[in-house]
Amino acid sequence: xxxxxxxILVANSGSVLLPVLIAVIVxxxxxxxxxxxxxIAIRKRNYETKVGSAEKRSAEIVExxxxxxxxxxxxxxKEALLEAKEEALRAKNDLDREIKERRxxxxxxxxxxxxxxxxLDRKLESxxxxxxxxxxxxxxxxxxxxxxxxxxxxxxxxxxxxxGFTSDKxxxxxxxxxxxxxxxxxxxxxxxxxxxxxxxxxxxxKELIVGAIxxxxxxxxxxxxxxxxxxxxxxxxxxxxxxxxxNIRTIETxxxxxxIIDDTPEAVILSGFDPIRREVAxxxxxxxxxxxxxxxxxxxxxxxxxxxxxxxIIRDEGEAAVLKTGVHGLHPEMVRLLGKMKFRTSYGQNALxxxxxxxxxxxxxxxxxxxxxxxxxxxxxxxxxxTRWKERMCRSVSISARNTRNRRLSSTP
Length: 413
Known about the structure:
By secondary structure, the protein is mostly helical.
């Protein structure tokens, strides 16, 4: 508008156009707000019209939705009612079927109970009949017993009348007549029993002796005074002898056993009458051979360890022997002496095993004969064996010492 006015003003620069221009400006000023108001009113009316139509449409939509919801709710309700009716019908059918089954089961039980009652009634009737028959039989037996007693009394009276003896006199007469015969038969029976008892005793004694001899049989020992130590090679013999024989002299001095080193391949013989010293020497020499370090100090150490080991073996063997024979309460020295018997042989048998066997057999024989207790017999056997072993050991040690002394004197220049 200002551009148009300016162009008109420039084109018509005359004063005639001034009132027209003013009128146009006034008209424009008045018409502009009016048009704006009219436009606003039209716009408002259009908005109200649209809002009303929208509200109406929304109301229609809500109403339609309500109708649809009612239809859906009614259909869902019908379906729920149908499902409930079907479920109720199924439950009713299940209940009816269960009731029928229960009734059938009850009927079966009642039938079984009825049958059992009938069986019991029949059994009771049968028992009553049997009881009645038994009662009748008892009465008949009592009557027959009474008749038998009366008949026996009549027979006894008739016998007394015929024989002229009473019952007591008849018993006395029978006893006197049988007495002589019984004495003779008794004497014959006594002689037979005595003969049979002697034969049985002789046979039993022979069986016991034979069993004892068989059980006492043991393996024989070929050598009782030597032991052999195996060597890995013959070079070990020189190491055992040592420089100028100092190793072998140390071993013989500490153990009291003679070492015989000859042409026997890979073997050294230990000779001595004391089996315990010989065992100590054997253990010490075997350990020295395994160790390989052979010199006097090592020899002393090995001999000391071997002595401790042999002492342990002696104690264990003695305790085992005491436990096996059932002899308790022995002195520890006695137990030690029993253990030493493991290394002793007598007439080709191990002294400890032989003593245990004889102890057990002596107890068995004593138990069979009943003369002494088993423990006393075992104690006596073990004590006698130990005493004999000690005596023979003393003799062997003295002979060994004398032989060693003579050998050393003969080797001295």
